[in-house]
Specification:
Number of strands: 7
Radius of gyration: 16 Å
Shape: globular
Structural class: alpha+beta
Strand order of the largest sheet: 1-2-3-4-5-7-6
Order of helices and strands: EHHEEEHEHEE
Largest sheet: 7 strands, mixed
């Protein structure tokens, strides 16, 4: 299999992205969403992020989308406008190939280039060692755990909060 190419997401990728996310919703704990959205909803979400100036990218190899990532609003209030939250999803069966790392690295670079100063990772399930390790490897620091804030798959789940400065971070005024 060829190495994955990271590139901007196109509308034609949305069917594959919806399938990746559907699996994450139904089988995983990375997202606390319970019902998987359809393609139209995923397209709408993507458009809103792109309109807001946020990166939305995919990793593909041999013509197949193997994963996707984006950043979005951390909080809606204006004081948070320099902070963004990331999301990374890798297709089932494609883990362990560096795809998540390539996607997260690219979103960090693109968000910094867009002028964001902080990136937040809100990781579903404190047992998600792969995501926690990925974020730590790319410079995120553990800043907290919200215990038992989500109920999914018949159990209470934590969220792990991690944070990384982008560009000059908080060393200079906005």
């Amino acid at each position: 299999m060829t190495a994955a190419l990271v590139r901007p997401c196109e509308d034609a990728d949305m069917e594959a992205i919806t399938a990746i996310y559907r699996h994450a919703v139904l089988a995983g704990t990375a997202t606390f969403e319970i019902e998987p959205p359809d393609v139209a909803e995923m397209r709408s979400r993507r458009q809103a992020l792109l309109k807001g100036g946020y990166p939305y990218i995919v990793a593909e190899a041999d013509g197949e989308v193997l994963g996707y990532a984006y950043t979005g609003t951390y909080r809606a209030r204006p004081a948070y406008r320099s902070t963004t939250e990331n999301s990374v999803y890798v297709r089932e069966g494609s883990h362990g190939r560096g795809i998540g790392r390539a996607l997260l690295a690219a979103t960090i670079e693109q968000a910094a280039g867009a002028g964001f100063r902080q990136m937040i990772a809100i990781i579903g399930d404190s047992g998600n060692a792969a995501s926690i390790g990925l974020h730590a490897a790319l410079g995120f620091a553990h800043v907290g755990v919200l215990r038992s804030v989500g109920w999914k798959h018949g159990r209470w789940l934590d969220t792990v909060l991690m944070q990384r400065a982008l560009g000059p971070g908080d060393t200079t005024p906005r």
